[in-house]
Amino acid sequence: MKSWKYLMMTTMVGSALALGACGDDSTADEVENETGTEEAAATGDTQDEATLEGQVSGDGSSTVAPIMEALVEEYAAVQEKVKVTVGVSGTGGGFEKFIAGTTDFSNASRPIKDEEKAELEAAGIDYTEFKLANDGLTVVVSKDNDWVEDVTVEDLKKMWIEDGTTKKWSDINAEWPDEEIIFYSPGTDSGTYDYFDEVILDEADLVKAATLSEDDNVLVQGVQADKNAIGFFGYAYYLANQDTLKAVKIEGVEPNNETIESGEYSPLSRPLFTYVSNKALAENAALYDFMEYSLENAGDMAEAVGYVRLPDTEYEKGLSTLEALK
């Protein structure tokens, strides 16, 4: 299975990211930061910007993680004295930490829920939502599966809704094997789980036989290893493993940049977010600088790791919103 650093190295033009991918991280960061310092001097950036220090912490969605990890790695080359740490507890787990006040920002693969809004209000935490990219939640099977190419939303319901039976492929399509379906799903703290539950299952119970994990790499490995397995996760995780996984078309539409951006890949196209504490933005110059950098570069990083960038107007809107919070 390809690592994210390898994916970024092979998909993004630019020596900075290639250095981070194929060499010692600390050495690469030092080299890149020297270049960044020289460029800052040449363009007249202030000494304060070049020597910014501080700590920034975030957590949340494993789907958003590849974008955020790429941003953190590249940002380290620009501001080497700012330490940015990002955990991957799933969207729900990330919001729990955000509500508790232990993180500055929370990554999410779904919009914030009403109950989470209420808990943040009770905790006295004002926040701002920023969009980072678009994703197509991708249903996958092993490359060894030679019978599933296309399914309907109704097929997915039959597969994934718990009904007290042992699900077989032949139950979905009589021409498919009389073999038990092996399910892999994001865990219940995942925004991807929530999104699938809402748009496919209509909030019915997920099949109990499913293996659940907040780590999408566990799901990837599970589906790779069994021709009777099926799973779902963010589009970038499929792209990184498309040599061993097959994306299943939904209602005849395959997930790709064009169908995700247009919304034709329905109902599994969705935006990806980060939520940021307004108070932390006002008090922590390092957080503000990192978020500004993130919005300026999220489109490029999203494409580098396999997601779909937003229209430039969306990032400009986000930067204007951020500036108003300074």
From TrEMBL:
Part of the ABC transporter complex PstSACB involved in phosphate import. Involved in the system for phosphate transport across the cytoplasmic membrane. It comes from Psychrobacillus psychrotolerans. Residues 26-37 have a biased composition (Acidic residues). Residues 1-20 form the signal peptide. Residues 47-295 form the PBP domain. It holds the Pfam family PBP_like_2. Its main location: membrane. It is found in: Cell membrane. This is Phosphate-binding protein. GO terms for molecular function: phosphate ion binding. Belongs to the PstS family. Keywords: Cell membrane, Lipoprotein, Membrane, Palmitate, Phosphate transport, Signal, Transport. The complex is composed of two ATP-binding proteins (PstB), two transmembrane proteins (PstC and PstA) and a solute-binding protein (PstS). GO terms for biological process: phosphate ion transport. It comes from the Bacteria. PANTHER family: PERIPLASMIC PHOSPHATE BINDING COMPONENT OF PHOSPHATE ABC TRANSPORTER, PHOSPHATE-BINDING PROTEIN PSTS. The keyword Signal applies. One of its GO terms (cellular component) is plasma membrane. Residues 24-61 are annotated as: Disordered. NCBIfam families: ptsS_2. It is a lipid-anchor.
